[in-house]
Amino acid sequence: MSDAFDGYERQYCELSASLSKKCSSAISLDGEQKKQKLSEIKSGLENAEVLIRKMDLEARTLPPNLKSSLLVKLREFKSDLNNFKTEVKRITSGQLNAAARDELLEAGMADTKTASADQRARLMMSTERLGRTTDRVKDSRRTMMETEEIGVSILQDLHGQRQSLLRAHETLHGVDDNIGKSKKILTDMTRRMNKNKWTIGAIIIALIAAIFIILYFKLTK
């Protein structure tokens, strides 16, 4: 049910009980006191009409399954308001005799008791609904906090993994540098070895040529 409608309903029940008491007390008054009481009652009736219009507008915005039950309540409230208006007219007309006055006083007291009982029952129902709503809000808040904690934990894990990846990237970059340096050293060594091979080859050829020259001169003598 709509929380807004419940709030308007509570206000109307309280106002209805107050109007019932004021109508009962206005019957026994005379003169200026009666006029003042009637003015208060008329002001209360105007406020009651405003509340009924608000409940009507709120009920028509709800889904059909909720709207139908609330419109039934509204019809009861409108009937209750019309009864108050009729009673105010009778009080204003000043045509009540003593018997009718006593009857109205008794009826007013009964209505007051009934309205108070209905009001207490509705207030208890509203309090229970508010309690359930509060529990749902607490559960939602608890779930939200747990979700937030999980999210923070996930972010921390992701941050740690990112740091690990960065360190691994730096390590690989260092390995790449070392490999490049090693490759350069090996290239230089290979170049030197090739150069040394040519040098040794040239020395060997020179030695062989010298040996042949020596042998030639010895044999010719």
TrEMBL record:
GO terms for biological process: intracellular protein transport; vesicle fusion. GO terms for molecular function: SNAP receptor activity; SNARE binding. It comes from the Eukaryota. This is SNARE domain. It comes from Arabidopsis suecica. Keywords: Coiled coil, Membrane, Protein transport, Transmembrane, Transmembrane helix, Transport. Its main location: membrane. It is a single-pass type IV membrane protein. Signal peptide: none annotated. It holds the Pfam family V-SNARE. Gene3D superfamilies: 1.20.5.110, t-snare proteins. It is found in: Prevacuolar compartment membrane. The chain crosses the membrane at residues 198-217. Belongs to the VTI1 family. GO terms for cellular component: endoplasmic reticulum membrane; ER to Golgi transport vesicle membrane; Golgi apparatus; late endosome membrane; SNARE complex.
